[in-house]
Amino acid sequence: MLFFSDKCPHCGIKGSKVEKDILHYHVKDISKIGDGGYSFCSHPACDVVYFSGNDVFTTSMINKELGCKESSSDQAILCYCYNYLKSELFDETLIEKINIRMNHYGCRCDRRNPSGKSCLGEIKQLQKKCDDDKLIEISD
Fold it and tell me: 92: which DSSP letter?
């Protein structure tokens, strides 16, 4: 009997379930994808992207640099539908720009975003974290 845990084996944070099709879109070597259900680890400091028990895919095993991970460069993608980069995170109109495009052209976050969810929540969290970090620096 297989034991399934929804917690990342590296950082212990609860992951979010993703469809296996998403892994086929993002994992470099799809032959390594097993039969189990997979989860996405959204913890920014964790190198794990997908996991199923102890079966893991790390950032180096993914075909794109993920903007939601702290180890990523400024050229990593934040919005996978419209290719907005991590370097654009401080643009105060970024959310508005993405919303306008989504309203006109739609999106495919369910397939293009490695988490299988809309990028807007992730971007808002990253912007808030950056704002909080700036406040800490100012008060030090």
Answer: T
User: What's the domain range around 6?
Assistant: 1-63
For residue 83, what are its two tokens?
A: 């290719």
Distance CA 33, CA 47 (A): 17
Q: What is the pTM of this model?
A: 0.85
- Supply the mean pLDDT for the chain: 89
For the stretch 27-52, pLDDT in tens is: 999 999 998 899 999 999 999 999 99
The H-assigned helical ranges of the chain are: 20-26, 94-105, 109-112, 119-139
CATH code: domain of residue 18: 2.20.25.270
Which of 63, 88, 109 finishes a domain? 63
